[in-house]
Design a protein that fits this description.
about 240 residues, alpha/beta, Rossmann fold, 6-stranded mixed beta sheet, 4-stranded antiparallel beta sheet, about 25% strand
Length: about 240
């Protein structure tokens, strides 16, 4: 496996594994995400992407191995510097967009002014006072990302964030993700849509059956689909 050549990592895993009963969901996985970069985590459905991201964000604990955040062992205090959207956005559908953000902001001791900031950032100001039960799936995704940005995180973790977005929404999100890294936010984005990752990522990791088969800087001239298929086919044949 190729190594991402830098010592400036925002988050690293060292031989991390996760078992559910007798099944290995993640196997002896070591990865490194560079600061101020976009890391694209690729893999087919069921590869273990969501399980890995849940470990990085403290939702579940590894069975073995270590996770480091910003050059120290990961602790729950590090969640103050991590924002995430994994699976469905955690919304109260009887509340408005602003009220959903204010609930989270109050719990985190963040000024309600920040709620307007992230609504504006995600182009949701016109829905500020609209109940989220009336939101489309794409609007819920964008509000979920707004929630993840509330605490000005150093690391933003997005699990299949383009789900439910139309082509214009996908294009807008792509532009936003590029600005996140430029503003000092490191991003991990998982997807099985190779073309989307190729357009936003600086580095990629390819996950299959719980194992990280490949990790390296992305080469804009390389055929990512061919690389992905070659690596997966080789693993299946072994």
């Amino acid at each position: 496996m190729a190594e991402v050549m830098t010592c400036e990592y925002i988050i690293e895993t060292n031989h991390v594994s996760k078992k559910f009963k007798k099944a290995d969901a993640i196997k002896d996985l070591s990865m490194a995400v560079r600061k101020n970069s976009v890391y694209g985590l690729l893999g087919p459905n069921g590869a273990g992407k969501s399980t890995l991201l849940k470990m990085l964000t403290g939702i579940i604990r590894p069975t073995s191995g270590e996770i480091s955040f910003n050059n120290h062992p990961w602790t729950r205090k590090d969640l103050l510097n991590i924002g995430s959207l994994i699976e469905s956005p955690p919304l109260y559908e009887n509340l408005t967009a602003f009220e959903n953000l204010k609930v989270r902001a109050t719990l985190m001791g963040i000024s309600s002014k920040r709620c307007d900031d992230v609504l504006r950032q995600m182009d949701l100001m016109d829905t500020k006072n609209k109940k989220t039960t009336d939101f489309s799936l794409g609007m819920k995704q964008r509000l979920g990302i707004a929630l993840a940005l509330l605490n000005n995180p150093k690391l933003l973790v997005l699990d299949e964030p383009t789900n439910g977005l139309d082509p214009f929404g996908i294009e807008e999100l792509r532009k936003m993700i590029k600005t996140f890294a430029a503003s000092g936010i490191s991003v991990i984005i998982s997807s099985h849509v190779l073309s989307e990752i190729q357009q936003v990522a600086d580095d990629i990791g390819i996950l299959y059956n719980g194992s990280l088969l490949y990790q390296d800087k992305i080469d804009a001239t390389e055929n990512l689909e061919q690389l992905f298929m070659d690596i997966i086919r080789k693993e299946r044949a072994s």
